Amino acid sequence: MTVMSIARFERFFRAAGGLDVDKSDLKRYSDFVDAKLYDLLTVAQATAKANGRDVIRTCDLPITKGLQESIHHFRKIDQEVELKPILEQLATHPALDRTPDEETEAAYPDIIGGLSLALAQSFKILHPDVKNPQTQHWDEARAVFDLLL
Description:
Blueprint (H helix, E strand, L loop, with lengths): L2 H15 L8 H25 L4 E2 L8 H17 L2 H7 L8 E2 L1 H25 L8 H14 L1
Parallel strand pairs: 1-2
Helix pairs in contact: 1-3, 1-5, 2-5, 3-5, 4-5, 5-6
């Protein structure tokens, strides 16, 4: 990730949750994004299969009300931070039995953005005074997301 990308990543987490993340948090963040996108796509794949389709559509993704609100809020923040181009690079998906259609793949950056916003806010909910999340904080937040997604 370029220096400019790291700066945007840092600005996003400051705007989203008042957090100071740094270059060392990028790996944890990338792992989180990969895992959660995969989880969403796994459920979407099952939905597409149950509906007799060979492709995954956006409506197959299990987007909850809270995640949808986070996506909308991310879009507002992203107008200032401009993180979406970076998220497009992160938005890859593993091989699946069903292939996502173009509309679904185009939605990945916003979905990842919404997950990222929810992640930043979860740090503050779990630890209101945290400024610089440590490994323990990342592990706890991820455990909550694993429980719900």
